Amino acid sequence: MNRELVLITGMSGSGKSVALNALEDLGFYCVDNLPPELLIPFVDLDQKLQTDKIAIAMDVRSHLALPQVPAQIEALRKRNINVRLLFLESTTDTLVHRYSETRRRHPLSKFNRIDQSAESTGIQKPIVITSGNQESIGLRNLIESIELERVMLAELREISHIIDTSLLKRSKLQSYIHSLIGAPAASLTLMFESFAFKRGIPVHADYVFDVRMLPNPYYDTNLRAQTGLDAPVASWLSEHQSVRDMEHQIAKFVSTWLPSMDEDHRSYVTVAIGCTGGQHRSVYLVEQLSKDFASNWVTLKRHRELDD
Fold it and tell me: How does DSSP classify residue 277?
């Protein structure tokens, strides 16, 4: 039995519960907020129950034990368990907005024993408010809590596949998880993603290519409303030598280094291609590159601006 374990970590408010629900749809046995100390015992228990697909979410509430996780992951992989780590990320502005909508407190908002961690990271301690003879414990500023959480999760972020949920609706995050985890089993999955520079670079990208210098169909009034998925735009772009050269050079770079990344036990590699609006040039190149690599690698594609 080939056993799979998907470990979900990331920023509080970035969508871990949504991701866990998406994995449940794929037939995974899901557990939320499992303490890291119980990771290996839990996997052992599920082996006795013959559960072959497990998904576990961990967050900063288990901050004291999180440093144990990388070593635990290596131990599980030595037992031939296919472990994949997903780290859900969002911008600070997005997280602040989500907390303001739900009126929930950040798990690090209370001034408690983790304050020593704050001191070690250089983050300012929360203010203690004094009223008369009563000293009450103040709440840590939300932005400070978010930044402290980033520091605490930095090591796990480094070894995980990062998903930026800042611009993802709930349904799109679910479909993204479905495509990532539902892809055929392979040592490495290659994701090509188009995006608009005006909306920011995807923080989860391993490689970013800027194609804004290429001829732009936007300036052709007959093509402006269409996208790189439409035949007239694709035909127009394919006629330009510079576009063909860019496709060839990106493909050569990626194909040169993919074997090394595969040997380094990478589960996912994301190649992001950006143009001004994320509608024409980047979309066309993602479509072409996906075709170029599909015969030798498990390849996925995503068009951030069109999907949203």
Answer: S
Task: Tell me the two tokens of residue 172.
Answer: 């799109």
DSSP for 69-130, written as a single string: HHHHHHHHHHTT-EEEEEEEE--HHHHHHHHHHHTPPPTT-B-STTHHHHHHHTPPPPPPEE
Q: Which domains are seen in the chain, by residue range?
A: 4-94+147-182 (3.40.50.300), 105-145 (no CATH), 189-307 (no CATH)
- Note the pLDDT tens digit of each residue in 124-134: 444 333 344 33
Calpha distance 59→66 (Å, rounded): 8
Per-residue pLDDT of 181-217, as tens digits, reads 877 656 688 999 999 999 999 888 999 999 999 999 9
Query: What does pTM read for this prediction?
Result: 0.73
In angstroms, the CA 289 to CA 294 distance is 8
Give the SS3 label for residue 7: strand
How are strands ordered across the β-sheet holding 53-57?
29-32, 53-57, 4-10, 82-89, 161-164
Q: How far apart are CA 79 and CA 166, in angstroms?
A: 35
**Contact by Cβ (8 Å): 66, 141:** no
Residues 63, 149: Cα–Cα separation, whole Å? 9
Distance separating alpha carbons of residues 238 and 247, to the nearest angstrom: 10
